[in-house]
TrEMBL record:
Bilayer topology: Multi-pass membrane protein
Enzyme's top EC category: transferase
Enzyme Commission code: 2.3.-.-
GO BP: any one term: GPI anchor biosynthetic process
GO CC entries: endoplasmic reticulum membrane
Subcellular location: Endoplasmic reticulum membrane; Membrane
Keywords noted in UniProt: Acyltransferase, Endoplasmic reticulum, GPI-anchor biosynthesis, Membrane, Transferase, Transmembrane, Transmembrane helix
Record's function text: A acetyltransferase, which acetylates the inositol ring of phosphatidylinositol during biosynthesis of GPI-anchor.
Main location: endoplasmic reticulum
Protein name: Phosphatidylinositol-glycan biosynthesis class W protein
Organism: Mytilus coruscus
Length: 467
């Protein structure tokens, strides 16, 4: 009891601590133990229901218009030669990259989350206005010439290094880092946190995007699993390469237990974490590649979707995840204590297989003309639209749940991935057309590496960035 207070007053004060406190603004004078502080931290990141699918799509589209803005500004600088973008301008390029690529994404997930649609529209309008203005200022541009370029555009051979896959991967990493660092603070909206059981939050989307973005560029997706050596050797190497993930998973368990860091047990379980999930998915994919050719993985995906959702909905697997083996949410034994992480790995594995199929679609043939990429864009758009059309009907069976990684969650994730990849590819095509209007010789790969310094750096140092 607090000194000088009645029991009811003391109870009321403690209740106010739990009601109004959070990690950044906790009235320390009413805190009696570190356990109480830890309990507040756990409550701060738990029991959330998320937001709408539409809002998550808009948040994830802010990076798309950010890339649009950045490339529009670089186009303006290139046309008017206002300053050099050579090797000596690394700091200037980095500043442009941060202001255009990172800052809008950071604002959309933190301080400007309440004005999200305004932020998205503002960046889009500025980028579009810049492009329109520059088109009018191209000396050699005429409507007749523009119409001719539109007609000839599909047949143009591609010399540029298209960036849509790199952008997709890089922004998955950037968004992951921002969310992980911001989630413990009040500036990060609670509706963007991982949901408790059902719902759609930004961080729910983040883990799925991370899985799919790695699958899209995996050796299986690029058909590199059977080149140069036998399958057994490749599977063995893949399993060995999973050991660092297992080590990181164990290290996280030890450190969180050692420093008494808050644990959200219903996320993955008592000991399980996302590193173990990544390792499990990678090992399962390696074993499957040894047993079955990648050509037949699509049938495995369909079968696993049906079986996984059937067990969740009709055989009590969902109830087991929520209630545990004792029926009261307890955790008894190593398997029951980590039931969320173990069972959700099946759903993440399904997502990985979907990602491999997307990667095979992207990399299955060498695309040499604009027409080839326009056809790919059409497939991505139609596929994404189809999945989002089906999604509301699937949620009638069971709502979207990252905790279960059920089929509605998997379909939602694949739909978002296709949407983002299509958007980034559209930007590549738009600026390729604008370059063709300039009627100037391209500078080639060296220029692209300079212009995409931050994106390339993020992709090259992905694991270090996340850690």
């Amino acid at each position: 009891m607090l000194i000088g207070c009645t029991r009811s007053e003391a109870t009321g004060r403690h209740q106010s601590v739990y009601q109004y406190s959070n990690i950044l603004d906790i009235p320390r004078r009413t805190m009696t133990t570190m356990e109480e502080y830890r309990d507040l931290q756990e409550k701060f990141v738990a029991n959330h229901t998320g937001t709408s699918v539409l809002e998550i799509s808009v948040v994830l589209s802010v990076p798309v218009v950010s890339v649009f803005l950045r490339r529009a500004l670089l186009l303006a600088f290139h046309i008017h030669a206002q300053f050099s973008l050579g090797e000596s301008s690394v700091r200037r390029i980095f500043m442009i990259d941060f202001l255009c690529l990172v800052l809008p994404t950071l604002l959309s997930a933190t301080t400007h989350s309440e004005s999200l649609y305004f932020l998205f529209s503002s960046v889009l309008v500025v980028a579009s206005g810049s492009i329109i203005l520059q088109c009018y200022r191209i000396p050699s541009l005429s409507w007749k010439y523009a119409k001719t370029r539109v007609k000839d555009f599909p047949a143009i051979e591609i010399n540029d290094r298209f960036q849509f896959i790199s952008n997709f991967k890089a922004y998955t990493l950037i968004g992951t880092v921002i969310s992980i660092l911001a989630v413990d603070f009040t500036v990060f909206p609670r509706r963007f946190c991982k949901t408790e059981t059902y719902g759609t939050g930004l961080m729910d989307a983040g883990v799925g995007l991370f899985i799919v973005s790695n699958a899209v560029v995996s050796p299986e997706a690029r058909n590199k699993m059977t080149q140069g050596q036998n399958r057994f050797s490749q599977v063995y190497k893949s399993i060995i390469s999973s050991l660092p993930l297992l080590v990181l998973g164990l290290a996280r368990v030890i450190t969180t237990k050692g420093v008494n860091y808050q644990e959200h047990a219903t996320e993955y379980g008592t000991h399980w974490n996302f590193f173990f999930t990544l390792a499990a998915v990678k090992i399962l994919a390696s074993i499957l590649s040894f047993v079955l050719s990648v050509l037949y993985w699509k049938f495995v995906v369909i079968s696993l979707c049906v079986v996984h959702q059937y067990l969740l909905t009709y055989r009590g697997l969902s109830q087991y995840i929520i209630q545990g083996i004792d029926g009261h949410g307890g955790r008894h034994g190593i398997l029951d204590s980590n039931r969320e992480g173990i069972i959700s790995s099946v759903g993440y594995f399904i997502m990985y297989l979907f990602g491999v199929e997307i990667g095979r679609l992207v990399f299955k043939k060498e695309r040499k003309t604009v027409s080839d990429y326009m056809n790919l864009l059409g497939v991505l758009v139609i596929s994404a639209a189809s999945l989002f059309t089906v999604l509301p009907y699937l949620t009638q069976i069971e709502p979207i749940s990252r905790r279960f990684t059920n089929v509605p969650y998997v379909i939602w994730m694949i739909g978002i991935c296709l949407q983002l990849m299509a958007s980034y590819l559209l930007i590549d095509l738009i600026f390729l057309f604008l370059k063709s209007l300039q009627n100037k010789k391209e500078k080639g790969i060296k220029e692209d590496k300079i212009l995409y310094s931050l994106i390339d750096a993020v992709n090259y140092n992905g694991m270090i960035l996340v850690l």
